[in-house]
């Protein structure tokens, strides 16, 4: 009886060990560091959408987009990019340009000039350059293998917008409209896409009630009908609190342009979420309840550090991050400049500050990128 009990116990132990090796590990594995473009391409093996968070106007990240689309594997395995920096009413213009047609600049520039949101599309030349790079790649490919860039911002006719309320009605449709584009053009057709949007669009945010922001973001809306569609990548932009960026970088010693995953449940999560590096937000006017501000503050820190993402994109140390140059057409074209001032007045109810038009800033060497 004793031998039988020992035999049974041994078999049970072996079976338990075998099942443990098959079952998912309860804790996350240690982060793996891999070349960033490789990591992006590999993510499409498990997800139809890779959501690449954007830090608006970051030149280093804009350059990284071009590295992704230049990689032959991208056109072969993915072939689609959905971007925030373009108005969907001009999709036909962009399609013609990316397929090699000679589209006049006055017509092509409508793609990034006529958007409902003021950023990132209106200012940085890096966004225009991205379209030019995709065109160059496409001209080397057969027509049926070319990369398509989908503009997902809701259409707006600025000549018909005269009040903030008129603009706000369209602005509030941004998440829903982009989600419909992704579902209709990508997921329902069994395709894959790199989705480039401001990082916060990929997460739910506990907005203060009085701010009346749309309740759901882009990724949340998409995943209602297509669960787990997104693999989320957050870019590293350093910290607002002095000294925190250098401390993290000295600890991690990452090479440039790498993708690190997983984050959650690893030592990296704690390293990124250092309490002393969370910048406290000033109480806005009118004031909001302290508990609402605290929830929003914590969520913003989680998004900024990247701990909510599936992977962290580390392009360069924070001190090497630069702002993309501003589009000179803003001040070289007086009519366009006046129109931008008109739109600003509609959205904000006040004139654009004169210091923003100080051209001495733009004549300087490349300026550091900073959190806005």
Question: What's this, in brief?
Answer:
With 372 residues, the chain is an alpha/beta fold. It has one domain (27-351). It has 17 helices and 8 strands.
Please tell me about this protein's structure.
By secondary structure, this protein is α/β, with parallel strands linked by helices. The chain has one domain (27-351). The chain is built from 17 helices and 8 strands. It has helices spanning 2-22, 36-43, 59-70, 72-77, 91-98, 105-108, 110-113, 125-138, 164-171, 174-185, 218-225, 244-252, 267-272, 290-305, 329-332, 334-348, 360-363; strands at residues 32-35, 49-54, 80-87, 148-153, 193-198, 230-235, 258-261, 311-314. An 8-stranded mixed β-sheet has the order 1-7-8-6-2-5-3-4, sandwiched between helices. Helix 3 packs parallel to helix 8 (125-138) and helix 10 (174-185) packs across helix 11 (218-225). The longest helix is centred in the N-terminal third of the chain and has 21 residues, at 2-22. Residues 1-26 have low confidence and may be disordered.
